[in-house]
Amino acid sequence: MTRQHNGAASHISRHSLHDAIVGRLRDLIIEGELAQGERIFEAPLCETLGVSRTPLREALRSLASEGLVELVPQRGARVRHFSVKDVHDMLVLIRSLEELAARLACESAGEHDIAEVRELHDRMMAFYRDGNRLDYYKTNQQIHTAIVALSDNEPLIQTHASLQARLKRIRFIGHDGPELWAAAIAEHEAMMTALERRDAQALTAAIGEHLGNAWERVRDMV
Amino acid sequence: MTRQHNGAASHISRHSLHDAIVGRLRDLIIEGELAQGERIFEAPLCETLGVSRTPLREALRSLASEGLVELVPQRGARVRHFSVKDVHDMLVLIRSLEELAARLACESAGEHDIAEVRELHDRMMAFYRDGNRLDYYKTNQQIHTAIVALSDNEPLIQTHASLQARLKRIRFIGHDGPELWAAAIAEHEAMMTALERRDAQALTAAIGEHLGNAWERVRDMV
DNA sequence: CCAACGTATAATGTATACATTATGCATTCG
DNA sequence: CGAATGCATAATGTATACATTATACGTTGG
């Protein structure tokens, strides 16, 4: 008989246990179930996740490289604690990365790709009008990721994603007041029109301002 | 009374086997002993390094997160292969990172720190005059790392280090002709004077040009 | 002769057992 | 009574054994 997975891509993800654990732990950290600075004991977590220590430890190594976990030799793992300065520095870096991505995107992005970002933007606006905070937030993140993806620069995309992941937890907590929320919407509008005109100068400025303000939005939550 | 590990750093590195393996493998890859795209079999490597599979596998996870190793589920590890585009994209990103670092460094770096970079620069010049290629190259790298360190932005420093590590192998192969070598020296001179004048504009421009040219220097070696 | 299947082998993935190191508590000495 | 020390406990680090999956090769049927 033919193998279970034939030509048509049925299920690509031959669910790797490693990735599953990494994903699960990442969620636990982002949702705050594992608090900042909290010690991570292997044995109880193994019990909870139903896996043995070996794959769990490998997952912790991965998360440590991602910067979400701190691994001290002979002293185990901790959920990494981010200081106010850490968050600020990450935002400064992300801003620079997205500005670079903006320049590259205006050069290399195809019409179709830009249209997809527009679609995300419109969807986000709909969530905004409906007052759907969670989906608004998620789509917002997706837009930033999508613009970076337009740069067609894999190392840049990876680096950005890693930093974005570290900040997710902070942003998850941050419940911006409605006034800041509205400002962010306006900034996104500016980004969108600049992108569609492929105006690198304007797009870079818009993203720069947007992420500069992002610091104001989250600085009090850290 | 006073803790055993007081201000003076006695012996920080309680030599972690993990870090030792990671370092060793990194060297093997950089020096080309493990070729690009080459399959990494765990068992023989364990024999060679004299360790068991467990810590070796954890080390491979770390290197995978660093981007030096490619890990495919159920199909093992490979030394990651970098295409011409990959190298180009990494240089574009590194350039942007160092430009950012340059701006931050001009704001926050102390006189003493800048003096240390000057010292590195002078030492590099000495190696250049002596025709000591290897130490010249190493010191060159150290200068770039040192300037980024002046930014006082930990995420930036980490990101830069990771990318720098991935490129080390390429640069290790690249034996620039003397004419390009001389040009690099001149560019470094410009960087140094700009840094000492804390002229962010000039430093950014110098670094940008330097890394733009870096692409020309390595593009044929990939 | 070619193609497809099945089996043997070897590699990776996971679990468990063992070794080493850190940590907390009780005890004892100053 | 306080501080230091030693032991018990528990955690991490490492090795090994077992399970699963991929791969290569020989075989067989068309």
Automatic annotation (TrEMBL), chains A, B:
The keyword Transferase does not apply. SMART domains: FCD, HTH_GNTR. CDD domains: WHTH_GntR. It holds the Pfam family GntR. It comes from the Bacteria. SUPFAM superfamilies: GntR ligand-binding domain-like (SSF48008), Winged helix' DNA-binding domain (SSF46785). Residues 15-82 form the HTH gntR-type domain. Keywords: DNA-binding, Transcription, Transcription regulation. One of its GO terms (molecular function) is DNA-binding transcription factor activity. This is DNA-binding GntR family transcriptional regulator. It comes from Kushneria sinocarnis.
